[in-house]
Amino acid sequence: MYHLSSFLYRTVIAFFVLFAAVLLSCKDKETAQPVKAVYRIVSCAPSITETLFALGLGDKIVGVTSYCKYPAQMDIQKIGGYSDINMEKVISLKPDVVILQKEHQKQRDFFTRFGIHVIPIDNKTKSSICSSFIQIGYFCGVKRAADSLVEVFRSSLQSKPDLSTAPKVLLCVGREGFGGGAVQGAFIVSRATLYNEIIEASGGINAYPDSFPHYPRISREGIIALAPDIIIDFASSMSAWPCSTLVTDWNSLNMLPAVRNDKVFCIAEDYCTIPGPRILLLYQDLRKIIQSYGKRLS
Q: Is there a contact between 140 and 54 (Cβ–Cβ < 8 Å)?
């Protein structure tokens, strides 16, 4: 059992450069052309901010949420949190466009009333993330960068597991009583999520067999019934508890194959829960874990 730390963000940047000349996009290009030159952009979510930087638009961002912390060196006006955006502050920044999540319906209506162009994006699946790259990039005049970023995703997350040999992976995004020395229940990912696509592209299969709900809560008994071969905790979604503590909790379920075979992992990096360009780093983490599965058993 160990804490998998990652410094692979440079690999993603290298991918972006490698595919800079590729112009392949997702099937669904649901976006409009810009109505005018875009010089001032407000981002209402960390994934959007990271997408803007990946597309080379960082110097045009004039407002971000307090949860937007990557790249670490950015010094941009804060507009509040994710759900409590200071809409008057946004208006004062005089943006050419505000980019927000589809869930931000109230904010979308407010900005539209003031004549501000709004781009609502969805990023719950690989396809919708690709569409968000296209929507943002095409509107802001960086079509080539958007197409290149899409190709990176398409080429990285296209593999499918060999069902005869793939290990069952339990991806845990939250737990009840974490850090208490025992696992009482867990919130895991279903087969209808982006994370399921990442598990499969990495060579594993989701230990949870259903698609709904997207993030089910399962009991201790339910976890035992799933009998995962690999367990992965996201520390960043559990109040940043130390990975060593989170991994130790699973020792209370030593009847699980993952626990018996020392296949419990923890990933602490924040990109695990931000469905933007850096989610490919999670793919690389999972791929490393899953590809080493057979070797460690032998």
A: no
Mean pLDDT of 91-102: 97
* pTM score, whole prediction: 0.86
Whole-angstrom distance, CA of residue 168 vs CA of residue 201: 13
> In the predicted model, what is the mean pLDDT of the chain?
88
Cβ contact 51:133 at 8 Å: yes
Over residues 137-190, the pLDDT tens digits come to 999 999 999 999 999 998 999 888 888 899 999 999 999 888 889 999 999 999
CATH code linked to domain 159-297: 3.40.50.1980
Closest CA to 280 of 126, 70, 109, 124: 126
CATH 3.40.50.1980 fits 14-156, yes or no: yes
DSSP percent split of the chain into helix, strand, coil, nearest 5: 40, 15, 45
Domain ranges in the chain are 14-156, 159-297
